[in-house]
C-alpha cells in the first residue's frame, strides 16, 4: 500500500506523516519529494529542515523552495513567515495552468504558533485549490496532544505513522491509514525499504510473530479421516434421506388426505365429552388433530 | 336545534409528507424508511435531526445523501451546506432512486421452507420496516441520480469551503453566521414561514454536512474549547425551523470533541440524535458476531414534539446493514451458529467476507 501511495498509483490527496524523536519520518518524506517532483511541479515549504538536506541529490529543477526563516522579520518583511496564511500565499503565487503539489516539512511549529483547527482549515483550503494534485505534510506527534493528531488525521486522506523498527532488514516500520475517495478504509502496518536515493523499493505488510504461528497451527485435524466405518453420506443417500417423510412433520397435504378418507367412507364420529372425560385441550406436541 | 356534521379542517396536502398519528405533527421521510420508523414515523417538520458521525464519516454522509435525495424526489426545496467539500459535489453524488421498492416486493418463499425447524414456520416474519408507510423511497447507491431530477429553482447552497470571513459578527463565528443568514433568506425568499399565507406549500430540507468539523473554524475567533458559536448557531437554527415548514438533518463529528459536556450541549439543542458507530477499521469489523452488520446505531434522543414522551422503540440494541439498494436499521441479532467449533471466540476472524458492497 505504502509503495503505491508514494509512487502515486494510489490516489492520496492529503498525506500526513507522523513521526517522533525515536523514529524519524524524514527518509519517507524524502521519498515522497523525490517521487512527486518527477511528476508535477512541487512547492516545498520548510519550517524546520534545511531544504537542501531534504532534496539530497534529486533533480530539483521542478522544485520551488519556500523557506521560513527569520521569524521576527529582522531582515525586512518576508513573503513567508510563521504567521503567513498558507492558503492565501499559494493562491497568490503566479501559477501557470499546470498542476502542482505541496510538501510542508513540518507543521508542528505553525500549529504551536496558531492553532490546530486553523492549520486543519489551511490544509483543507489548500487541498481544494483547483490545480493542486497532492499535499504532503509531516508532524512530530510527540510535541502535540492526542486531540491535535486526531483532528489532523480527520482532515488527511492518508495518515502514515512511523513506528519503532523491529526487523532490521527493512528501513522502517509504519502504520498506514488510507481513506479512499469511495469510502473504503484500509488500516495496516507495513515494513518499507528505501534505497540510497530514497526511492521506495519494497513495502509489505507487517505480521507479528504470534500471527505467523497461528497460521501454522490453523489446520485443524479431521477426526473422520481414518475410520473403519462409513460416517459420511453419498449424494444418493442424502437425496433418499431428504425424501423420507418424518412422522412428526405435520404438513397440510397429509392432514387433507386424512380428512378426505374419512368423509369418503361416509362415517362420522360424533362424540360428546361428558364430565367424566379428562379432556386435554392442550396439545403440547401439536401432533394431534383436535 | 340543528346538528352540524363536524367537518375536518382542511389538511395540508404537501407531497412527501404525512400527518403523524401520534402527536399531530407533519412528518417527512428521512430517506431511510427504517430510520423513519425508529424516530416515530418520520422526521417532524420543524425539527432538527442530528447524526453523530462515525469515525470516517462514510455512513453519516450516506444518510445525508438519502435525506437530500428524498427531498429532490418529493419536489421539496433543498438547501445544502458544507465546509469539507463543495455543496454542489454532494448534490452530484446523490444515489439513484429505485422505482419499484424492494421493500414492497414479496420475498419468494418455499426454497428455504423450514424442514428441520418446522415449528418456526408459523411464526410471523420479523419486519424491519412496518408496511403501510406511504413516505420514503429506496435508493441504489451504486448509481448516481440522474441530473434531470434536480430542478435548479429548488436547490440552494451555502459554500463554506472557499469563503473568506467577510462579516465580523461579534455573536458567532463568521462561517456560522453566514450559514444562518443563508437559511434565513431561503426561508424568507421562498416563503416557508408559517405566518405567510401561501396557496401552495412546500417543504424546505436543510442538509448540513460535517458541521463543527475543523474546517468550520476561523482564525481570530475564540479558541475551540470555549467557542460558543456552534451552540448559538443551533439555538438560532431551531428557532428558525420551529416557525417554518422546514426540517434539518445535520451531521457532526462528535468523536473529535474531547469534552463530553460539549457533546452533551450539542445533543441538548437538537430534537433527535442518532449516533452511528461503524465497525470499519476497528476490531469489530472481523468479529463474527457482527458480520451481518456494518455498525451500531445508538439512539441518543428521540423527538417528542407536541408530547411529553417520545415513541419508544421495542429495543435500543440497534445495528445498521448496508446493501446496494437498501440501508436498514435493525434489531441487533447474533448470527446463527453454523461453524464447527462450538465456542464463538472473539478473535476468530471471518476470512471470506467479500461482498459487492465493499468499496
From TrEMBL, chain A:
Pfam families: Elong_Iki1. GO terms for biological process: tRNA wobble uridine modification. One of its GO terms (molecular function) is tRNA binding. InterPro entries: Elp5, P-loop_NTPase. This is Elongator complex protein 5. The lineage of its organism: Eukaryota, Metazoa, Spiralia, Lophotrochozoa, Annelida. GO terms for cellular component: cytosol; elongator holoenzyme complex; nucleus. Transmembrane segments: none annotated. It comes from Capitella teleta (Polychaete worm).
TrEMBL record, chain B:
PANTHER family: ELONGATOR COMPLEX PROTEIN 4, PAX6 NEIGHBOR PROTEIN PAXNEB. Signal peptide: none annotated. Pathway: tRNA modification; 5-methoxycarbonylmethyl-2-thiouridine-tRNA biosynthesis. Pfam families: PAXNEB. Residues 345-359 have a biased composition (Basic and acidic residues). It comes from the Eukaryota. One of its GO terms (cellular component) is elongator holoenzyme complex. Residues 338-359 are annotated as: Disordered. It is found in: Cytoplasm; Nucleus. Keywords: Cytoplasm, Nucleus, tRNA processing. CDD domains: Elp4. Belongs to the ELP4 family. GO terms for biological process: tRNA wobble uridine modification. The lineage of its organism: Eukaryota, Metazoa, Spiralia, Lophotrochozoa, Annelida. This is Elongator complex protein 4. Its main location: cytoplasm. It comes from Capitella teleta (Polychaete worm).
